[in-house]
Amino acid sequence: MKLSEVIEHAKGEILNLSVFSDYEILGGCAADLMSDVLTGVKPGAVLLTGLCNLQVIRTAEMADVY
User: Fold this and answer.
1) Which region holds residue 64: left if phi is over 0, alpha if psi is between -120 and 50, else beta?
2) Rounded Cα distance, 33 and 3, in Å
3) Cα distances (angstroms) measured from residue 41 to each of 8, 14, 47
4) CA–CA separation, 34 and 32 (whole Å)
5) What span, in angstroms and rounded, lies between the C-alpha atoms of 55 and 43?
6) Residue range 9-19: average pLDDT?
7) pLDDT band per the 50, 70, 90 thresholds, residue 16
8) Contact status, residue 31 vs residue 49, Cβ threshold 8 Å
9) What is the three-class DSSP state of 2?
10) Within 10 A of 23 (CB to CB), how many other CB atoms are there?
11) Does 62 have pLDDT greater than 90?
């Protein structure tokens, strides 16, 4: 599934214009503990979280998730 399809299904929008919506999504994860993301998520997955802070962005970059 393409990132653009995920955004469409979630009725979302891209706020960062440097993000390419044609990325191929390889999996998904929902977590609020960033340590779980670092230890259990494969690169190329989509991360869903209720958190809204810089640590989420840093963790997503380290884990290579979207």
Assistant:
1) left
2) 23
3) 23, 22, 9
4) 6
5) 17
6) 85
7) confident
8) yes
9) strand
10) 15
11) yes
pTM beyond cutoff 0.70: yes
Phi-psi region at 11: left, alpha or beta (left = phi > 0; alpha = psi -120 to 50)? left
Note the pLDDT tens digit of each residue in 20-58. 778 899 999 999 999 999 999 999 999 999 999 999 999
Tokens of 54: 């810089």
Tokens of 46: 């989509």
How far apart, in whole angstroms, are the C-alpha atoms of residue 35 and residue 56?
Answer: 10
Dihedral pair phi/psi, residue 46, rounded to 5°: -100, 135
| Other beta carbons within 10 Å of 58 | 11
Q: What's the token pair of residue 31? A: 């977590």
Which amino acid appears at position 42 of this protein? Answer: K
